[in-house]
Amino acid sequence: xxxxxxxxxxxxxxxxxxxxxFCSCSTEFGKAPNQNTxxxxxxxxxxxxxxxxxxxxxxxxxxxxxxxxIQPMNQFARKNYFYPDLPKGYQVSQFDLPxxxxxxxxxxTPDGPKRIGLTRIHMxxxxxxxxxxxxxxxxxxxxxxxxxxxxxxxxxxSEPELRSAEDAREYLVALKSVLQYAEVSDxxxxxxxxxxxxxxxxxxxxQKEFGTRVELKNINSFKFVQKAIEHEVERQTKVLNxxxxxxxxxxxxxxxxxxxxxxxxxxxxxxxRYFPEPDLVPIVCSAEWVESIRQTLPExxxxxxxxxxxxxxxxxxxxxxxxTSRQLADYFEECxxxxxxxxxxxxxxxxxxxxxxxxxxxxxxxxxxxxxxLAGMLKLIDAGTLSGKMAKTVFETMYKTGKxxxxxxxxxxxxxxSDEGELGRIVDDIIAASPEQVEQFKAGRDKVLxxxxxxxxxxxxxxxNPGLLNQLFKDKLSRS
Length: 480
Prior knowledge:
Layout: E1 3-14, H1 53-65, E2 69-70, E3 73-74, E4 77-80, E5 90-93, E6 100-109, E7 112-125, E8 129-132, E9 142-145, E10 152-158, H2 165-181, E11 194-204, E12 214-219, H3 222-241, E13 249-254, E14 259-265, E15 275-276, E16 283-284, H4 287-294, H5 301-312, H6 316-322, H7 326-338, H8 342-360, H9 371-382, H10 388-401, H11 405-412, H12 420-432, H13 435-442, H14 449-459, H15 466-479
Parallel strand pairs: 12-13
Antiparallel strand pairs: 1-10, 1-11, 2-6, 3-16, 4-5, 4-15, 6-7, 7-10, 8-9, 11-12, 13-14
């Protein structure tokens, strides 16, 4: 039997506030265990939370960036469960009255753009982190670091409209880009500020009812999200083909072995015994407040991608890559402002520049080649001073040293020879020394022209203008 994959994603994104959601403790990552704590985030008796206004503003910004409807009134609730890393015995979250509803994101697929609905966005506080002794060489002991407790999060819940692991990965890439453009989260997966849970189920093709879903918990990279979903689809397919039911549960993904394994049975909403948070009043998001937040939004990735195609005439694929991050898009536009040939600029950024940055695991914000330097090199190519081959050498040196292209050309003697008289003498010498090849050319064997070009490039130490060489050889051989 053929099955259709149904995927819904729940993403937790840490908001870029300097202090926690209900107290003034720092959200700085990497501090000594339990340093960023106080009686409020540790849940001491008698303390009261005070809501961080910036958290609400960032959450509204995220809602607007993802086309969610901001609710005029939303409310915090207590989500009750008992883990060692949850000091109060409950998590302050939102349940039936979240801040945002009914949004959407557009992802790019092989079949074209696809809109994925967002069920809701809600605010909540993060839990702490359990550290088990086997990771510290102390088997049998466990520790808790409460630095993350009370760090502000938004949870973004998608509709179950993703149909493949590849779509799920594209959705995460698009969502990360939107949140970074809006400057509400740095989305650093290594530091835990962008975490994903995937709900995966299968149903027979054509069936409307959903199958039993399995939750894959806290996967820490886009690549592993895709691999975990692919493995889970294979596992559920095997279970169903054997005639067995899929069990609703939470599973973890082991990246080293590329498999999922059971963690616990999956809870339902009633298991958490939600009720309104009695220590916090409901939040009223007035139309004036929402509009003031809307005015702070920059041009978002989808709008920028469409504008790049229309304004610069570059392919949709190029525009999609260049608008993945706001900084990369800005880098491209700065280059084009200095050298108004968008496609060559795009080619160099997407090719040589991104290749070198990927090798160094660098971000465009740390790029050693400035837009002015790249544009300056492209002007030299356009003027015939540099050949494409020599430009690659210049670019790599520029990337490694930060030197200006003109300085590198002078130091390495890389100026392209475009003087017709000088190249004409080289062409004459090669023709005179190659009577056999001349006869082959006259006999109609045009491919022998590459021999002449190669000899001329060798004689000029690779500095001859190949386009001019080609024309000179054709003219002189036709007359000989």
